[in-house]
């Protein structure tokens, strides 16, 4: 009897899991409460995988041996509650991929901020170092689909807390935790503790043969390290002291001591600018060194890395006003990092779906660097309440085009217009990429 695997959600991770499940002999059924995008529907049909869209047929779903739910579906969902009540095991896509990855190694990266940049940089280091690696997970390509269709000896995986919530045996050989700040509290009953526990699950199955890379300067990580049984080898990174194992930056020089070779390089040679990116670079450098990439290759990779779309991406300068797309800043801390690196008067475009944000974290930086705020969202009350005393001008807009035009109108030559919303995008846009694309299009039309 083949195992019956039901997949909730037919997006990138759901369809990837369906393809892998089918390949591994599961009886697969995919159910999505909304419409399924054409490309995903075509993939399911080409593999003869039964699916439904726009509905969930409960008796088909509750008949599962195991359910893989898309990371976007919360525990509060009525159907998920019924699945839990029946005692049907729920797994995430990374769990399914892990079970079928064979002898391949995994570098898993999680954290509230910096994880996408760190993941992309680790992957770049692997490629420059001549390793055949797959870039998977939250960053765009399904881990399960990669395992099914194009298996690699090494996977560099960006992993969200939602994906970690439903693991059982998933174990990365190298785990990176960039930092932990309040994010997604709406999904964790507004309990920061639940979110912290979720992030630390990345190390829960690790053994003494594995490595755990973390930020010694991140207060939340350090306050909670002792609450978990961690068997793997610690490799911290810091800017506050010299350490023997891990990485540190002092006097403008990064030192990595994770393998037999010590690596040293000037932070002024890093392709990525800003203090937060120095942390990301240390984390990625340790990972590269730990898997045995030569120091020349790591240096080369750190110097040649190109930053990501929608993450502090320079769009264009129009009549002396520079536009920067940081649409990927979906929480307050990401926006804090963006503002921290601003060196000119800034018009800040903020807003979207609030995930229980505490904007007070930004008030000092806003007072110091921001001359006007343009709100872009359906509900901007909290932003107005938070910054009414820090900024003289605040404007409400209802689209990317309106926001860009308003910001341009408020800007003088030499100013920066920064889209760094601190919120999710689902009120006006499909996702943060769509928000970033519409912003860039509106800038081009000025």
TrEMBL record:
- UniProt xrefs under HAMAP family: MurD
The answer to whether UniProt assigns keyword Cell wall biogenesis/degradation to this entry is yes
Write down the Gene3D superfamilies for this protein, in alphabetical order. Answer: Mur ligase, C-terminal domain (3.90.190.20), Mur-like, catalytic domain (3.40.1190.10), NAD(P)-binding Rossmann-like Domain (3.40.50.720)
- Keyword RNA-binding belongs to the record: no
**Stated family:** Belongs to the MurCDEF family.
| UniProt-recorded name of the protein | UDP-N-acetylmuramoylalanine--D-glutamate ligase
Catalyzed reactions per annotation: UDP-N-acetyl-alpha-D-muramoyl-L-alanine + D-glutamate + ATP = UDP-N-acetyl-alpha-D-muramoyl-L-alanyl-D-glutamate + ADP + phosphate + H(+)
- MF term (GO), any: UDP-N-acetylmuramoylalanine-D-glutamate ligase activity
Q: What is the species of this protein? A: Paraflavitalea soli
What gene name does this entry carry?
murD
Residues bound to ATP? 111-117
């Amino acid at each position: 009897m083949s195992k019956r695997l039901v997949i909730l959600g037919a997006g990138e991770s759901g369809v990837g899991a369906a393809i892998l499940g089918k390949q591994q002999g599961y009886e697969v059924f995919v159910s999505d409460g909304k419409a399924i995008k054409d490309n995903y529907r075509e993939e399911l049909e080409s593999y003869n995988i039964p699916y439904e869209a726009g509905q969930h047929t409960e008796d088909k779903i509750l008949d599962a041996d195991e359910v893989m739910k898309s990371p976007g579906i919360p525990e509060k969902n009525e159907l998920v509650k019924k699945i839990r009540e029946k005692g049907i095991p729920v797994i995430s896509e990374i769990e399914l991929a892990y079970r079928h990855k064979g002898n391949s190694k995994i570098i898993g990266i999680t954290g509230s901020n910096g994880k996408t940049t760190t993941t992309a940089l680790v992957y770049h280091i692997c490629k420059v170092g001549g390793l055949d690696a797959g870039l998977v997970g939250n960053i765009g390509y399904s881990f399960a689909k990669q395992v099914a269709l194009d298996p690699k000896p090494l996977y560099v995986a960006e992993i969200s807390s939602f994906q970690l919530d439903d693991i059982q045996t998933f174990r990365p050989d190298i785990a990176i935790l960039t930092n932990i700040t309040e994010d997604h509290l709406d999904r964790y009953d507004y309990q920061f503790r639940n979110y912290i526990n979720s992030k630390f699950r990345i190390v829960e199955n690790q053994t003494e043969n594995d490595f755990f890379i973390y930020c010694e300067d991140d207060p939340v990580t350090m306050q909670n390290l002792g609450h978990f049984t961690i068997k793997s080898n610690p490799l911290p990174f810091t800017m506050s002291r010299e350490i023997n194992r891990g990485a540190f930056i002092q006097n403008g020089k990064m030192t990595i001591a994770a393998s037999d070779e010590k690596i040293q390089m000037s932070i002024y040679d890093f392709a990525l600018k800003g203090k937060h990116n120095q942390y990301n670079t240390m984390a990625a450098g340790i990972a590269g060194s730990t898997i045995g990439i030569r120091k020349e290759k790591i240096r080369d990779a750190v110097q040649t890395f190109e930053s990501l779309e929608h993450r502090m991406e320079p769009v264009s300068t129009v009549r002396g006003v520079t536009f920067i797309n940081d649409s990927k800043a979906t929480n307050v801390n990401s926006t804090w990092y963006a503002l921290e690196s601003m060196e000119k008067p800034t018009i800040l475009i903020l807003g979207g779906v609030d995930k229980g944000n505490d904007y007070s974290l930004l008030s000092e930086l806003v007072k110091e660097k921001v001359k006007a705020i343009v709100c872009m969202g359906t509900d901007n009350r909290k932003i107005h309440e938070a910054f009414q005393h820090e900024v003289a001008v605040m404007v409400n807009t209802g689209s990317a085009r309106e926001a860009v035009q308003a910001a341009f109108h408020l800007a003088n030559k030499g100013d920066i217009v920064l889209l760094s919303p601190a919120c999710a995008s689902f009120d006006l846009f499909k996702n943060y990429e769509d928000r970033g694309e519409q912003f860039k299009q509106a800038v081009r039309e000025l």
